[in-house]
Design brief:
This protein is mainly β. Helix content is about 15%, strand content about 35%. The chain has a 5-stranded antiparallel β-sheet with strand order 3-2-1-4-5, with no helix packed on it. InterPro entries: CvfB_fam (IPR014464), CvfB_S1_st (IPR039566), CvfB_WH (IPR040764), NA-bd_OB-fold (IPR012340), WH-like_DNA-bd_sf (IPR036388).
């Protein structure tokens, strides 16, 4: 089957001066303009294309890759706003529409927003939405404590960063648990700290326990070797400096260098550490 808003491999039915006509199965014949053809095609050849509707509502193909497909999230910039909604740049000549009733909050021209692409049932067109509640899982979260999960940063709140967990649930990373630069649209790995009785989910970014310390210890050893055996971050260094260099807390840093010291790998000073 062929689906709008996705990348498909289609077979060529016919080639003309204007372009190639592809077998789109349920979508009928899909046109690939000649300027999109990167190498010579003949009937029977296959080609990987992204399928969308043109201004005449006809299935059209492009060999370009958009920034997101239907069902995916992406950070897209608003190019124009008119009476029906905002038009976002998703890497194709034709922009994608975010209707006003799918904007939460209302979009402004020139700004970028995290959106999810979907297929509008009424028009059959590919659209964008930042009203994520309608796409997320309505069932009660069943994550285990410290379960590793994939995250998308959705925004900032008064207490922390709002994240989408496994593209299924909202969660929050409290500001005091963040030790690296974060931005809307960023994808990263995290760990479920707690699922509260009201269904809200607390998330942390650092691997818990000694596994994290061991991983950090490897980073510290690599950094020491890069710096010629001396690193000006010691036992009494400021937390901000540790956060800037290693994206971790001072407590984790002290545990890591303590472990390296016990292994006889380094010496620790107030403002520096040294390879033995």
């Amino acid at each position: 089957m062929s689906y709008l808003g996705t990348t498909q491999t289609l077979f060529v039915n016919e080639v003309s001066n204007e372009g190639a006509y592809l077998d789109g199965h349920e979508l009928g014949e899909v046109f690939l303009p000649s300027h999109e053809i990167k190498h010579e095609l003949e009937a029977g050849d296959s080609v990987s294309v992204f399928i969308f509707l043109d201004n005449a509502n006809l299935a059209t193909a492009t060999t370009k890759k958009p920034l997101a497909q239907v069902g995916e999230y992406a950070l897209l910039r608003v190019k124009e706003i008119n009476s029906i909604g905002a038009f976002l740049d998703w890497g194709l000549e034709k922009d994608v529409l975010a209707p006003f009733n799918e904007q939460k909050p209302r979009m402004q021209e020139g700004y970028s927003y995290l959106v999810r692409l979907y297929l509008d049932n009424a028009s059959g067109r590919i659209c964008a939405s930042n009203n994520f509640n309608r796409f997320l899982n309505k069932t009660e979260p069943a994550y285990a404590p410290l379960q590793e999960v994939q995250l998308i940063v959705a925004g900032k709140t008064d207490i922390g960063y709002k994240v989408i967990i496994e593209e299924a649930h909202f969660g929050v990373i409290f500001y005091n648990m963040v030790f690296k630069n974060m931005f809307v649209g960023q994808r990263l790995t995290g760990y479920v700290q707690k699922v509260r009785e009201d269904g809200k989910i607390d998330v942390i970014l650092e691997k818990p326990g000694m596994a994290k310390v061991s991983e950090l210890g490897e980073k510290i050893m690599d950094k020491l070797k890069q710096e010629g055996g001396v690193l000006a971050i010691g036992d009494k260094s400021e937390p901000e400096l540790i956060k800037k260099v290693f994206s971790t807390s001072k407590a984790n840093y002290k545990k890591a260098i303590g472990g390296l010291f016990k292994q006889g790998l380094i010496d620790i000073e107030a403002k520096a550490i040294r390879l033995k």
